[in-house]
Amino acid sequence: MLEFTWKLFSQTGNIDTYLLFKELEREHQPNGDEQEIEFTEMDQPIF
Questions:
Q1: Which InterPro entries does the entry link to (predicted)?
Q2: Rounded Cα distance, 9 and 14, in Å
Q3: CA 8 from chain center: how many Å?
Q4: What is the pTM of this model?
Q5: What are phi and psi of 30, to 5 degrees?
Q6: CA–CA distance from 17 to each of 14, 41, 45 (Å)?
Q7: pLDDT by residue (tens digit) across 6-46?
Q8: Do 22 and 2 form a contact (C-beta atoms < 8 A)?
Q9: Between the chain's N and C termini, which has fewer beta carbons within 10 Å?
Q10: Are 46 and 23 in contact (CB under 8 A)?
Q11: Contacts for 36-45: CB closer than 8 Å, 24+ residues apart
């Protein structure tokens, strides 16, 4: 969905499409808490 939205923006220059792209991009990036949990889980040994 991100690629489609970016491609549509780059072809049209529509600011609403760009704002949608940025909103979708933010939703797909983990926030600091989620990222910290992922790093903690990676540090634990596998049994």
A1: YqzL
A2: 6
A3: 17
A4: 0.60
A5: -70, 145
A6: 5, 36, 44
A7: 999 999 999 999 999 999 999 888 665 555 556 555 555 55
A8: no
A9: C
A10: no
A11: none
CA 32 to chain centre: 13
- Distance between CA atoms of 7 and 21, rounded to whole angstroms? 10
Rounded to whole angstroms, the Cα distance separating 8 from 5 reads 5
Q: What amino acid is encoded at 39 in this protein?
A: F
Identify whether the C-beta of residue 14 lies closer than 8 Å to the C-beta of residue 8.
yes
Contact indicator for 5, 17 with CB cutoff of 8 Å: yes
